[in-house]
Design brief:
5 helices, binds iron/sulfur cluster, 3-stranded antiparallel beta sheet, alpha+beta
């Protein structure tokens, strides 16, 4: 949500293809919007309201997605953006989960539920994101 100054588009070279620079490392990279996310990328209504966000970020239902998943720079692939906000049953945010399925939370109940989930969900499972989401919902959390 706050990487708009760090992932910079320098030039558009095709309708969905851009020459970019990762400002923190000074690394240039070419990014093409993923085929299955072009309809998301084409809708600018959300990004126009969030000027601090990385230009490639877009909402997709309840989730916020990177639309250049395949071509995102190395540091993004390592850290990944937050893909889930976890709320308590009272609607208070108690943690976030990144695209690497790492949990950031100080909430003991969420951490316990997450640890339980990792007993049954492998991060190599192609359905891991959906399964983790369902697991946390079954434990009384809300996911955004
Ligand atoms: S993961 Fe994607 S949306 Fe997030 S900062 Fe990197 S390029 Fe931008």
């Amino acid at each position: 949500m706050y990487l708009g100054d760090y992932i910079v588009i320098e030039r558009q070279i095709a309708p969905f293809r851009f020459e970019c620079r990762s400002v923190s490392t000074g690394t240039p990279f070419t990014a093409e919007v993923d085929d299955d996310k072009r309809h998301l990328f084409s809708d600018r209504s959300w990004i126009d309201r969030h000027p601090t966000a990385c230009w490639f970020l877009r909402p997709d239902g309840d989730l916020i997605r990177c639309t250049i998943h395949r071509d995102s720079p190395a540091q993004c692939k390592f850290y990944r953006c937050v893909m889930m906000r976890v709320l308590s049953s009272t609607g208070e945010q108690v943690g976030t989960i990144t695209e690497t399925l790492a949990l950031h939370s100080e909430d003991p109940a969420l951490r316990a539920a997450y640890d339980d989930a990792l007993w049954v969900i492998r991060d190599t499972d192609p359905e891991a994101e959906e399964r983790l989401q369902e697991f946390l919902i079954s434990r009384g959390f809300e996911i955004q």
